[in-house]
Amino acid sequence: MKKIFSILTMALLMLSLMPVVFATSVGSGTGISITPEQFKPLIWMCDNRLVTDNEGQPGRITGEGDEMFERIHNYAFEGEKISWQVLVMDKNKIEEINEVVGTIGATQGEGNDVEVECKRTIEPEVIPESCNARILEEQLTEFNSQTMAYYDCTFTVETPASMHGEYFITVEVKDLTGLSGTMDENEFWFLNPTIALAIDGDLEFEDVRPGAQAYSDTILVGNDAEAGSGVIMDMFITGTNFYDPSSSGAACPNTNELNLNAFRYFATNGAYSTAGDDVFDDGGFATIRSLDVEGYVNIQNTMESFSTKMYDEAEIIQDAVIGGYYASNTLSPGSEMALTFKLSLPEPCVGDFSEGQIYFWGEAI
Q: Burial, 13: exposed, middle or buried (Cβ in 10 Å; 0-12, 13-18, 19+)?
């Protein structure tokens, strides 16, 4: 028995030294390196751009917060606003977006001065067609809240001390890695242009016989706004009564005051003149607008500052209404109106009536 046991033990030891195969195939593994693209954020302007009026300085048609549909040139003044709605996308994730801002600068594109932070807004489920959101040839139609967001941006024009001159204005998106992009639509604006009137000529009436009429030399009233600004001016005329500044015993005819109603004017601007004046008066002032047989208009007797009461009262020429304005009454930069004045001096009249004013006003449309 001992011998047999020994033999069996040896056989088992020999078997344990032989290789053992448990299957018909074998495998091995290797690591994989995956680096997602650092996606440059994209931004699209949707169809929601708006220019609105400022506070405290209403125009002829628009007031505070109203859309300035009469502004047809690229100038803007302190307090006026430009608003956009934009769609932003980052394929890494929307949380990678660091900021969406309105910028201004001398050149268009990325990296200009940041002026306003845009605010994230409601996210519709379908991308509006007006956004025209594309990546190369791919048209994006489905909104993905993991990679997309909408923002409202409102840029307000600051004072001339900080914003004056020509600027490109756009909306820029920046991510946490420093990548950025702007919407394709870079706007070009002249901010806070200087506006002024140029008056060429003097009003002189010398040796006018009491009870007679006299005509002045023609004077020119022009739009002298800052060069390159494109500012269109709506023009007005008002005046005051006239007095003799010296103690001379003046009377014209009954007191030492020459009433403004002794003066009238004839104006031309291109194809238009006061001869075709609409003579419209909304009753804002005591003086009623009127036209004589020669085409001369009387002058509104008003305060010594601009007032919205002058609308439909004190325009220099009232003709050709377009968009709520009299086209004949507007001046582009460098253009001029010609005015001739007529004085109908009362009888009796004595004195030197040199204390008083004829005012010309221009309001940027």
A: exposed
Q: Going by CATH, does the domain composed of 42-191 fall within 3.40.50?
A: no
pTM of the model: 0.83
Report which DSSP code applies to 70: T
d(CA 42, CA 151): 13
Q: Is 295 left (phi over 0), alpha (psi -120 to 50) or beta?
A: left
- Of 123-132, 215-224, 249-258, 278-287, the range with the highest mean pLDDT is 215-224
* Joined tokens for residue 147: 């990679």
Question: Distance (Å, rounded) from C-alpha 190 to C-alpha 202?
Answer: 33
Query: Who's near 11: CB < 8 A, 6+ residues apart?
Result: none
- How open is the CA angle 170-174-175, to the nearest 5 degrees? 160
Residues in Cβ contact with 183 at an 8 Å cutoff, skipping those fewer than 6 apart: 43, 44, 45, 84, 86, 170, 171
Of the listed ranges 29-43, 115-129, 139-153, 211-225, the one predicted with least confidence: 29-43
User: What is the distance between the alpha carbons of residues 155 and 49, in angstroms, rounded to a whole number?
Assistant: 11
Mean pLDDT within 331-356: 96
- Where are the chain's structural domains? 42-191, 197-364
Tell me the DSSP string of 84-111: EEEEEE-SS-GGGEEEEEEEEESSSSTT
Q: pLDDT tens digits, residue range 103-129?
A: 999 999 999 999 999 999 987 788 999
**Number of helices (H) and strands (E), helices first, in the chain?**
1, 28
Contact at 8 Å (CB) between 221 and 235?
yes
Give the H/E segment covering residue 191: strand 187-191
Is the Cβ–Cβ distance between 41 and 89 less than 8 Å?
Answer: yes
- Separation between Cα atoms, residue 328 and residue 276, nearest integer Å: 10
